[in-house]
Design goal:
Length: 159
Amino acid sequence: MLRPLALLVLVALLAGCAAQPPEPDPIRRALQNLSDRAVARLLDVDALQPPQDQVLLLVAPEVDASLEIDGERFLESLTRALLGASDGPQVLDWRPAMSGEGGDHQWRMESRLEATAPRLTLSDRDLLPYRLTLSLYRPDAESALWQTQIEGAFDATAL
C-alpha cells in the first residue's frame, strides 16, 4: 500500500502530465506566421530558381515604431523562416561593405514593415493594420528587380 506522501507525489506527477503545454509566445507566433508567408512568396520568384543555389543578403528591416515591434525580433523571425525552408537559399546579414559587384547568385533583400492605418478598436481587441514590403536587388543595383507586399493586421493584445 502506498503511503500518503507517495500517493500525493504520484497524483501531482499525473496531474502535471495531463496539463496543457504552455501557449507559445503570441508575438513570436504572429511574426513567424508573417515571415512564413513572406518566405513562401519569395521562394516562388522565378529569378531565385533554384533557391538553394542563391544567397540572400538580408538588410536590417525598417519597422514602423507605431507597430510596437522590435526590428531585431522581426529580422530574427524572417531569418528563421528563410533558414527553415527546405531547399531554401543561403542567408547572410548584409553590411554596407558588401555593396558593389556580386555574383549572379547574390541578392540583397530589403524589408519594410509599416502601419497602414491607425489602431482599430474592436469590442474584444485592438488591431494594428500593417503592410510588409519585400524587395530584391542585385548587390550593385539601386532599383528593385522584384517586390511584393503582404497586408494584414496584428492583434495588439498579443504585442
